[in-house]
Amino acid sequence: MPTAGGLSNSLTGGKEIGCTAVQLFTGSPRQWHHPPLDPEVAAKFRQTQAETGIAVAVAHDSYLINLAAPDPDILDRSRKAFRRELDRSEMLGLPWVVTHMGAHLDSGEEAGIALLIESTRAILEETEGMQVGIAMETTAGQGTGLGYRFEQIARVLEGAGAHPRLGVCLDTCHIFVAGYDIRDEESYQKTFAEFDRLIGLDRLKVIHANDAKKPLGSRVDRHEHLGEGEIGIETFRLLVTDPRLKNIPIIIETPDSETMHAVNLAKLKRLAAGGSLGMRVTVRFFGHYSDFSPDGMEVSVPGGATVASLSAILAEKDGRLAGIERHCRAAVNEEYVAPDAVLQEGDEVAFIPPMSGG
Amino acid sequence: MCRITQEPIDVRALEAKVAGASNGAVLTFVGQVRNHSRQREVAYLEYNAYIPMAEKQMRKIAAEAKARWGVDVAIEHRIGRIELQEASVVICVGSPHRAEAFEACRYCIDTLKETVPIWKKEVCPDGAFWIEGEDAIQAQP
Fold this sequence. Notes:
heterodimer, A: 358 residues, alpha/beta, TIM Barrel, Ubiquitin-like (UB roll), seven-stranded parallel beta sheet, 14 strands, elongated, B: 141 residues, alpha+beta, Aldehyde Oxidoreductase, domain 3, five-stranded antiparallel beta sheet, four-stranded mixed beta sheet, 11 strands, 32% helix, 42% strand
């Protein structure tokens, strides 16, 4: 949530749209240096959290930090900056700082992981006695970024002595574009079983629920609104109804936060309550049907609706559309489909009467 | 090479698109508006299309003709009001040899009528009718 106007605004903003967990940057994510956190700001944050009843707030670290940097100067700055991240979060009472593990920048995966282990051990040692932990985030594997395989995260965990203040943040978009399929129940279960085998579900502390603009295995990190990307809404239903995950905070990091976080959050809540998601589809009419509805219409249909069930809804709306599915072929997003084709949010459905071009 | 247009179709310009030096035959089919239909006098036609899908389907037809006969195909279909004797559709086929051109051209116009989402409204002295396959349905004024 945005922190403009003060860190505690992330909590009040979250409360306004119905969040029970929020994630925030405790400093500008694109700057190395921040003035030390004012204890009064920290006190206000803690008080606001109590007042809003936001159960969990977690921090995300600065994008500049690279705990696997081969350049000793950058590595040193990164470790110091990350140490300050932990200091700030500790003052705010946040249980976790989520961090992308780092990039080896062509020094090689082995060297990168060795440095990550060393950095993690050093920082944990330096901050001994603190409550705040480090949640290593699964990444998309862009460029030389580390942490896109569960094995890599497992090695850092193990190398750092499986410290109790080490956890993992699973990002659905990242693991998907990194090659872990989660689009249906079978693939979802398989991926979570692998996570459990290699890392352990007890290490999973934060979930980032994001759909993906780019396909499975593309290793390109572009977040999409839930149910509107390559992953699809079913995965998020599985996620919010998975009993193993019921005490883990879920954070949404999708685009257009000001307007769309509320929409995406509402989707998760409906899925969690066992409801099916209503979808909006655009319907277009041609031939004599265009006389009834020249510009087409937006229609809400239940999740899982097909072209056939849409036809029934249309007939209820306007008796003149009754039987349209018998007189017309249907096209979804400009391709002919069978009447049992399942619709997705945002689809354009066209009813194509017998044609008379030529 | 394949498009829906509001403007009169320039037949010569479309032919030029398939008249490559390796083509020994350039065959053009012009569909034009006739003055009668179903024993009625026709004043003019009004065509409508689901434009993006229609263009996509036209490109599919051209690609299929290329795959089957090795011919170059350009198709334009006009929409909006079209007067008698004006062209509603033009298909140009360029081919090394004439036999493939004739077969491909026949395939293109026949398939266009079945798969390309375009509809005509016949405007007659006693009313307007949407033509949907075999059916003529009275249009709303």
